[in-house]
Design goal:
Protein name: Protein kinase domain-containing protein
Shape: globular
Distance between the termini: 68 Å
Strand order of the largest sheet: 1-2-3-6-5-4
Number of strands: 6
Largest sheet: 6 strands, mixed
Order of helices and strands: HEEHEHEEE
Strand content: 15-25%
Radius of gyration: 21 Å
């Protein structure tokens, strides 16, 4: 076979993992490795993507923060917006620019979280663990509408009746 016409495929992920395992050999008894670990049971999906096609303002407290790409993650009446669900929704939002193939999309992105119960534990977690900005990390806008200021992109949480 002519080497010029044949491109050899190198599995760089496996090579990097092997290098990491060699580097961490002294801790092999306390570490386990799961290559290609699935992060969900099914394909990753956000509940809704709302595209705003112009800079026109919308007369609604909910749409006040909207930009071009607005992701919505909804938790039903028997679910809660806990820390795990919050972090998963953040991962979806952070993945959108890569999915769209436009890294600058992060400047045109918002995340709306919707749930039926006040997420007290989530708000406590955010206040305790997120970097402090000039403002309170959780800001009540009106009853049932909160802005979450963690510096990535605008995030709001709606507590539905």
């Amino acid at each position: 076979m002519n080497p010029r016409n044949h491109r050899q495929r190198i599995n760089w992920h496996a090579a990097a993992l092997s290098g990491l395992q060699i580097e961490l050999e002294s801790a092999r008894d306390i570490l386990s490795y799961s290559p290609e670990f699935p992060l969900s049971k099914g394909p990753r999906r956000v509940d809704c993507l709302i595209r705003k096609k112009s800079d026109t303002s919308i007369d609604s407290p909910i749409a006040r923060i909207f930009r071009e790409y607005n992701l919505v993650d909804y938790k039903g009446p028997h679910e809660s917006m806990n820390v795990s669900n919050f972090l998963k929704a953040l991962s979806y939002a952070c993945s959108l620019p890569d999915y769209l193939g436009h890294p600058n999309t992060s400047h045109q992105l918002t995340l709306t979280l919707m749930c039926h119960r006040h997420p007290q534990k989530l708000f406590s977690y955010i206040r305790k663990n997120c970097p402090q900005t000039l403002q309170e990390p959780v800001e009540k806008i009106i009853d049932g509408l909160y802005y979450i200021h963690i510096g990535l992109f605008p995030i709001q949480l709606l507590v539905l009746p």
